[in-house]
Amino acid sequence: MASITFNDGTSATLDNGTTGIANGYGSRFADWVPFTRPIGPAVTALGTGLRYQYAFRTDYGASFNMTDIPNTSMSVMLRLQAHLIGGGTCTVDVGDGTTLPYTCCLAPDGDVSISLQDKGLLLYSMSFTLINAAASPTAMICQY
């Protein structure tokens, strides 16, 4: 069951409330796209057109959405948004049964946003661009 856990002084977990439906498939994150980004100055050689980069580090991350979040979770969504923008970390459990949870923070060029998904049912979605903040970097893979 996909969820995001964080502690902004009080521990909280955000999921979309569908963990008990269809063996938890309804709770899966949507549009999961992993990425790897070397961070450091880059130049393109004039003579060859080849790119050269001095990488200080490599960020391993993913962009994804959590959909179908009920309006009753709005306070947790706002807390999570403020926590991540303020430099906090969270634990992302993709719920695929094979991947360990990722300890994440907001990517340097990333964002976390809330949008109204369904006006009639008052369902919201959250979009994330996070990087793995673990001591040993690992690509953020999701097996669904």
Notable traits:
8-stranded antiparallel β-sheet; 1 helix; elongated; Pnp Oxidase, Chain A; 144 residues; mainly beta
Report on this model:
This protein is mainly beta and 144 residues long. It has one domain (3-132): Pnp Oxidase, Chain A, CATH 2.30.110. The protein is 8% helix and 46% strand. The strands form two sheets. Strands 1, 2, 3, 6, 7, 8, 9 and 10 form an eight-stranded antiparallel beta sheet that branches. The chain has a two-stranded antiparallel sheet with strand order 4-5. It is elongated, with a radius of gyration of 17 Å. The N and C termini lie close together (12 Å). The model has no long low-confidence stretch (mean pLDDT 91).
CATH architecture: Roll
> How many beta strands in the DSSP annotation?
10
CATH topology: Pnp Oxidase, Chain A
Q: What does the radius of gyration come to?
A: 17 Å
Determine and state the CATH class: Mainly Beta
Proportion in β-strands = over 45%
**Overall 3D shape:** elongated
- Tell me, rounded to a whole number, the average pLDDT: 91
Fraction of residues in H or I helices: under 10%
Straight-line distance between termini = 12 Å
Which structural class do the helices and strands define? mainly beta
Low-confidence stretches: none
Short description:
By secondary structure, this protein is mainly beta. It has one domain: Roll (Pnp Oxidase, Chain A), CATH 2.30.110. Strand 1 and strand 2 form a beta hairpin.
